[in-house]
Amino acid sequence: MSLLFEHVGKRYQDGTVGLADVSFEVPAGHFCVILGRSGAGKSTLLRCVNGLASPSSGRVVVDGVAVTAATLRQLRPRIGMIHQSFNLAPRASVATNVIAGALPAVSTGRALLGLFPKALRETACALIADVGLGEEHLQRRVASLSGGQQQRVGIARAFMLDPDHVLADEPVASLDPQTSIDILALIRRKAKQRGAAVLCSLHQIDLAMRFADQIVALRDGQVVFNGTPKALARQGLAHIYDPGWSEPCSLREAVGA
Length: 257
Ligand SMILES: Nc1ncnc2c1ncn2[C@@H]1O[C@H](COP(=O)(O)OP(=O)(O)OP(=O)(O)O)[C@@H](O)[C@H]1O
Fold this sequence. Notes:
Layout: E1 3-11, E2 17-26, E3 31-35, H1 42-49, E4 57-62, E5 65-66, H2 72-75, E6 79-82, H3 94-99, H4 108-112, H5 118-130, H6 147-158, E7 165-169, H7 177-194, E8 197-201, H8 205-211, E9 214-219, E10 222-227, H9 229-235, H10 238-241, H11 247-254
Parallel strand pairs: 3-8, 3-9, 6-7, 7-8
Antiparallel strand pairs: 1-2, 1-4, 4-5, 9-10
Bound molecules: adenosine-5'-triphosphate.
GO molecular function: ABC-type phosphonate transporter activity; ATP binding; ATP hydrolysis activity
InterPro entries: AAA+_ATPase (IPR003593), ABC_transporter-like_ATP-bd (IPR003439), ABC_transporter-like_CS (IPR017871), ABC_transpr_PhnC (IPR012693), MetN_ABC_transporter-like (IPR050086), P-loop_NTPase (IPR027417)
Domain ABC transporter: 3-245
């Protein structure tokens, strides 16, 4: 159960290159953080996994199945999504938002009527407790919660269908430092419990170093680093973030100079 990017390129309709030629693998159960400057291609990469963007070249392979319009129906229930701005229904309750994570597995008619099977309702309640929201929160409107609490709802929703993969696009961008740590620890714990691979884009290097098993760094739509936090600490961050960085620097590093 892994996520594989094989020479993935994405050119948008206006000609902008979102991804140039990206290849790497995230093994099952790994927490993989995607780093890179603004515009490096992090969101584009995540969107290529859940079909919100389709690669112009190459392919994304989820557990051996290439992501295409035809396979998305089968793959979507196995991919949980956590968003930067939570993407919840603000006027609906915590419980309603969490159970909405099961929509890919429920017929449209039943979903419209709010008829979720008892097992799914029980799963939703258990998840809400597990992410640290007490019973008193079940019927609260999401709009009345803090950002950190809303992201806990988003995490519970993402795990409704026991996903094999979790995509998190800057999940702590709007949260304070301690809440960010708590939220990433929660995503990591839930994913490890499940054995799910996580692909999580971040701008906070300290958090990447703290939580990642694997770090992939993008620059101008290309992979400029793929390895452990320790290896990145040895290598430094110039090749990812410095505007003036150029290739000879990485060549020197490659020969250990
Ligand atoms: N719908 C689109 N149409 C045209 N270009 C796009 C589109 N979406 C993204 N891009 C471009 O693709 C490149 C990569 O964007 P992307 O959003 O993937 O970067 P990012 O690393 O997630 O940035 P940030 O950290 O700011 O969110 C950028 O040049 C961006 O302007």
